[in-house]
């Protein structure tokens, strides 16, 4: 068969890469990512599936006169956590896909 051996090797390599990718995705899902607001006044903890697991707000930031400030700190922490997940995905899975896919 012409190229049969090469095709078999390519399929083996593809299966190996698929397994590695699945392992990396599982590792990402199990990882906790903590987003931080300035001075750690708000911490937002996500799992790798982008589910918010915990939100901690320090009493120092709670001011009934400045609810918008608290909301801003929560947004900063949440966005920081999501950014960390994105960066880790690119780092771990980027080797398996064309640039910009993850």
UniProtKB/TrEMBL annotation:
Region of interest (Disordered), ranges: 1-24
InterPro entries tied to this protein: YbaB-like_sf (IPR036894), YbaB/EbfC (IPR004401)
Keyword line: Cytoplasm, DNA-binding
Subcellular location: Cytoplasm, Nucleoid
GO-annotated molecular function: DNA binding
A single GO cellular-component term on record: bacterial nucleoid
Subunit annotation: Homodimer.
Function of the molecule: Binds to DNA and alters its conformation. May be involved in regulation of gene expression, nucleoid organization and DNA protection.
Family as reported in the entry's similarity comment: Belongs to the YbaB/EbfC family.
Name of the protein: Nucleoid-associated protein GA0061074_10849
Source species: Weissella bombi
Source organism phylogeny: Bacteria, Bacillati, Bacillota, Bacilli, Lactobacillales
């Amino acid at each position: 068969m012409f190229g049969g051996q090469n095709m078999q090797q390519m399929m083996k390599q593809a299966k190996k890469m698929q397994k590695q990718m699945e392992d990396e995705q599982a590792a990402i899902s199990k990882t906790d990512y903590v987003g931080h607001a300035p001075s750690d006044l708000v911490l937002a903890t996500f799992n790798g599936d982008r589910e918010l697991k915990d939100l901690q707000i320090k009493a120092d930031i709670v001011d009934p006169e400045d609810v918008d400030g608290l909301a801003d700190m929560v947004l900063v922490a949440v966005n920081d956590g999501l950014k960390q997940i994105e960066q880790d995905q690119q780092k771990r899975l980027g080797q398996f896909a064309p640039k910009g896919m993850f």
